[in-house]
What we know:
Blueprint: E1 24-28, H1 32-43, E2 48-52, H2 55-64, E3 69-73, E4 75-76, E5 79-80, H3 81-90, E6 97-101, H4 106-114, E7 119-122, H5 127-137, H6 148-154, H7 159-185, H8 189-206, H9 209-220, H10 225-244
Parallel strand pairs: 1-2, 1-3, 3-6, 6-7
Antiparallel strand pairs: 4-5
Amino acid sequence: MNPPSPPPPSSTPPSSPAPATPPCLLLVEDDPASAAFMAAVASALPARVHLVTSIADGESACALQMFDLLLVDANLPDGRGEHLLHLLRERGHATPALAHTADPDPALHARLRAAGFAEVLLKPIAAAALRAALRRHLPGARPADWDDAAALAALGGEAAHVQALRALFLAELPQQRQRIVHAAIHADIGGLRAELHRLVASCGFVGAARLGSAVRALQESLLDAAALRAVEAAIDELLASAATA
């Protein structure tokens, strides 16, 4: 008896997994230049950006679709950005929100944070600082704590060397954190630059991806309080995760 013939090959190629959908951001900004800059930075993450120019349009957009992050100007043609956030929170929208403003007044920034904004970004903002802020809050855009491939490449593929160097790196981090904060508080630009230069180099060797990204953002905007807080948070979370590992 002849063996059964094999089934004919399928004419349909095997399907590959669908690419992940980039997160969606609502940008509320009435200045065309600022809007174009912020949209370009966010799109490159990547993220899908929906731009509106007023509180009314922002409210309508949130009624029609869900967003992963709101990026709201503090002053809009039809009112304050915090009023938009208040309206959305009343309607049950819990989407994380960042405010942005060209006004450096600490009282304004405190008011915006009290209104529910997770961060206040001061314009003009460097592209790296904006990317870092978005990555802190957009799902899927935040870098991992450790990039093992990068560390192995930097240290010749020796996993034991990576682990040993990471242990030294983590032991030094609390003191580096103190020196960075001290330099920033006292506006010691030279000292701050030197500490950040050393830290970002160390991050590259050990593959501390998220902390490295936060440090680079602070390097581009040395006295930005939000960028400094992001570096502190990245250090604290890295140390906490290492302590529980």
